[in-house]
Amino acid sequence: MTQSTSEDFSTQATGGTHGITDETTPQLIEVRPAVAEDLPEVRRIVTAAYAEFEPWLTPANWALMTSNIAKVIESGPPGLLRVAQLDGQLAGTVTYLPPGPKDYQRVPPEWAVIRVLGVDPALRGRGVARALTADCLALARADHAPAVGLHTAEMMVAARALYEHAGFVHQHDFTHLNLRFSIYMRLM
To answer: What is the CA radius of gyration of the chain?
Structure first.
């Protein structure tokens, strides 16, 4: 396992332990592939993480968004479901899509993709999202992806700031579910 700070978005790890420091104490975040036993907790985390966005959508669009999210977090190909543990507790999750053909058409197929990053609201602010992002970037580097793409919605202000801090650059906007979404890209 490799140790790095959450601020280090160039980590070479494809999992492992990331040293995270907050205002009080250093904490270790372990990022690893999800296993079947993690799925109920992954679903709970993602539901809690995205719940704050429900007021932005009509009931029909919220149902569609949550259905789309559920499809992304199910384990198995083509995505690689990752989880982050903080003090032995699942704290966050992300789906990494490697370069190549995939059921995601918003970026070129040769790019890797980050999807549905979510952190338990009770554990935010501790570097979990940074560790998950760094892990995806390391996976993309190991996969020799020329770039990593993702999309995020206008109301996901914290996510946009995280990705920009990690070196992602806004590419263009599109409308989906009556919301403005943005495609971001980072060259590897």
So the answer is: 15
Q: Is the pTM of the predicted complex or chain greater than 0.90? A: no
User: At CA 173, angle to CA 149 and CA 116, rounded to 5?
Assistant: 45
| Tens-place pLDDT, residues 57-101 | 999 999 999 999 999 988 566 679 999 999 999 999 999 999 999
Please say if the pLDDT value at position 104 is more than 50.
yes
Q: Please, are residues 99 and 112 in contact by the beta-carbon 8 Å criterion? A: yes
Asked whether the beta carbons of 148 and 140 are under 8 A apart, the reply is yes
**How far is Cα of residue 5 from the mean position of the Cα atoms in its chain?**
17
Q: Smallest Cα–Cα separation from 14: which of 115, 104, 98?
A: 98
Contacts with 115 (C-beta within 8 Å, 6 or more apart), sequence order: 72, 79, 94, 95, 96, 97, 104, 150
* CATH architecture entry for 16-187: 3-Layer(aba) Sandwich (3.40)
